[in-house]
Amino acid sequence: MRKGLKGKTGSLILRPCQETDLDALMLLQEKICRGMEHPDWFAMTSREENKIFLTDPNVILGVYDEDRLAAYGSVGFPGDSPVNLGWDLGLPREEALRCAVLDTIVVDAEYRGLGLQRELIRCCVAYAREKMPGCEVLATVAPDNIYSLRNVQAEGFEILVRKEKYGGKERYILVQRSVYEGEEDRKKL
User: Fold this and answer.
1) pLDDT tens readout for residues 76-132
2) Distance CA 171, CA 141 (A)
3) Helix, strand, coil abundance in the chain, percent, nearest 5
4) Alpha carbon of 61 to those of 56, 65, 103, 143, 168: distances in Å?
């Protein structure tokens, strides 16, 4: 998957990240955290967690300006793992196993205003639906992070619940529902 995007300095490329990109992912995440006015809006992803997102079927999609990482988004299929947001919603196991998690979207401040967060949301959701047709895609957003909240809602996500996550940080858990044949027979989240 390679996708061309229009950037400030020319063309940006969206592609799956590899383990060789891990240092750049961690550096960009740290840069974003250091520059945040409200650090509690973001929950850091550890190096080990990012390695898991680099393992199929999970993915981290990176936006590159030549060799420079400008933004990235991760989506995972947590299955029975405790990080599956389906458990937070009280879903039965069968339904929780049909959930993907849009985990992290990071955009370098120099590349904000280009629509990269929304583009990454769309691409991560499309990837999840390609890997697991009919899945529900769940995400978390800090309630006061109006920018991210507006972007996920503009991409069709709906707030389901507000609860403490990530060591006591308030979060909305949102869903972008799947639309597929027979959905009316399926129990809704």
Assistant:
1) 999 999 999 999 999 999 999 999 999 999 999 999 999 999 999 999 999 999 999
2) 5
3) 35, 30, 35
4) 12, 13, 12, 25, 28
Q: Which residues lie across from 159 on neighbouring strands?
A: 174
Closest to 69 in 3D by CA, of 113, 118, 14, 30: 14
| Helices 116-131 & 146-154 angle (0-180, nearest 10) | 50
Residue type at 182 in one-letter notation? G
Contact 86, 99 (CB under 8 A): yes
Residues 6+ apart with CB under 8 A from 111: 7, 8, 12, 63, 65, 70, 71
177/174 Cα distance (integer angstroms):
9
- Both structure tokens of 54: 């680099």
Contact criterion met (CB below 8 Å) for 73 and 28: no
Which domains, and CATH codes, for the chain? 3-179 (3.40.630.30)
Strands (E) in 43-142, as ranges, are: 59-65, 68-76, 99-107, 136-141
Name the residue type at position 140.
T
Round to whole Å and give the CA distance between 130 and 144: 32
